């Protein structure tokens, strides 16, 4: 069996992982935004959702997307899955799980620099998302605003205002990701467009 036939067979027998990947993103951003907005307190109970939904669910989606030869989906889900593992580990360091010396040596500005790195990543992925669907494009635009807010607030630039930008963007990411997840499931399940996601812009392709 040649490689082309094998790839076609994998694509036919492997379900679209977007639904579970977007659900993972929706859950972790919903819970995390509740803390940023002051609806809940602390991040102790954000950690499980960061690890299992933000991290593992999106990494699983990335692996499955790789079987579809989907470079964009694989990269997006893997990068954001690893992001939540990184954020969760940062919280654990801050809690002193890795020792008091590590906790006392924390410099929040390093997280700000990491957020800038993810902002750069998110911007060029936003360009790519223009040729996927409009729901995914909106999610990436909101992720851009999330990282703008996180970067500036962590680096001490108008911290209250930029923190609120991040909080509201994260809540909207959760809402749009729930919608995208539902559309991925129901449109395939019912064999018709139950929840529209919008056509690609058609600018680059």
From TrEMBL:
Positions in coiled-coil regions: none
Keywords, in A-Z order: Membrane, Transmembrane, Transmembrane helix
Transmembrane segments: 20-39, 45-63, 75-93, 113-130, 137-158, 164-186
A GO cellular component entry from the record: membrane
Domain of life of the source: Bacteria
Alphabetized InterPro entries for the sequence: Gpr1/Fun34/SatP-like, SatP
Family statement: Belongs to the acetate uptake transporter (AceTr) (TC 2.A.96) family.
Name by which UniProt lists this protein: Uncharacterized protein
Membrane topology: Multi-pass membrane protein
Subcellular location(s) of the protein: Membrane
